Amino acid sequence: MEEINVNNEKVIIRKANKSDAKSLIEYLNIIGGESDFLTFRTGEFGRSIEQEEEFITNTLSTKNALFIIAEVDGKIVGNLNFSGGSRQRNAHVGEFGVSILKEYWGKGIGEELIKYLINWSKDSGIIRKINLRVRNDNTRGINLYNKLGFLEEGIIKRDFLINDKFYDSLIMGLLID
What we know:
InterPro entries: Acyl_CoA_acyltransferase (IPR016181), GNAT_dom (IPR000182). The protein is about 25% helix and about 40% strand. The protein has about 180 residues and is an alpha+beta fold. The protein has a single domain (about 1-125), classed as 3-Layer(aba) Sandwich (Aminopeptidase). The model has no long low-confidence stretch (mean pLDDT about 95).
């Protein structure tokens, strides 16, 4: 667990636990309607509370996976989920997704979640590379990832389809050595 101060508010960053499942689903349904940069929109997350509990439990028991949340006064305001490969040959590499409630955008919480992931990866003794996929028009996200040392590695054409318009994604990676 880590505690940071953001605009005189105490933000707690901690690993998710099974009892967070209901609040996480509510959070994900809110953020799905706040940004077109996510892979889902409101109502598309598609997990029941029981399925989310199982997902959290499985993540907690996997050495190359991480699921963290950011809380303000007990309210989930952000999350980050990282999953490493499932086989020996790719267990050292994984991809993450991060999201923040719109009212907390621009306050540094996403950056703190990613820094937590980077430090966890360095300490894990397992993770040697972190990947991410970001829409290529998400300049704020790309600037943040660049600031944290991620390098651009490639483009996925037509990765998103939103309102009958295609968007490309940028693949970025950070070596952990």
